[in-house]
Give the backbone structure.
Amino acid sequence: MIPLRDNIPSKSFPVVNWFLIIVNLGIFLFEVFFLNQQQAEAMIYQYGLVPDQVRLGGLTSLDEIRITVLRPFFTNMFLHGGWGHIISNMWILFIFGDNVEDRMGKIKYFMFYILCGLIASFTHFILHRHSGVPAIGASGAISGVMAAYMFMFPKSNILSFIPIIIIPFFLPIPAIIYIGLWFAGQLVSGASSLMLSSSATGIAFWAHIGGFLGGILTYKLFDSSRRR
């Protein structure tokens, strides 16, 4: 199922959501057009989250802690590995993020997005502690946004494209069903991925799961409409 749009218009221009989209696109385009393959790979290993390179002991300075421990948990969510990766992530953020920003307000939405991304990174790190494969992408943070959307706008319909053989179907699906099915798929894939090596899975399913659960647990803290 490919989401095309929802049926809830934004009440204000989603400044933060567009800022996040532009920043992610800008970094990806820099990687594609200004770096060669070797430089791009070095950038991903330097700023992506490589669990077995995160040293929790033996650090002697705040700078070492910042670079070795703190930085990769944050910077990995702004890196992407290919056109399909960046386009799919930014499209989902475009569809769901504007309404969540409406409800939370711009500053709180940005804080919520980053928090979900950090929770996603930490979840992946815990479950793949000895992996040497870089985890990159905004999907963990976006999973948290989807979780918030599902609870904030449960009656929203998501117009979805469903290709069946060669016949295209366009079907409005309630947000709670669409996102619920997506999360169920992540759980199944995540459980399967624990039986495989990180390099064999290729997708950080548990980052998605962690970001989603983080969104469920924290979205009420950022929902400005609850205080109005």
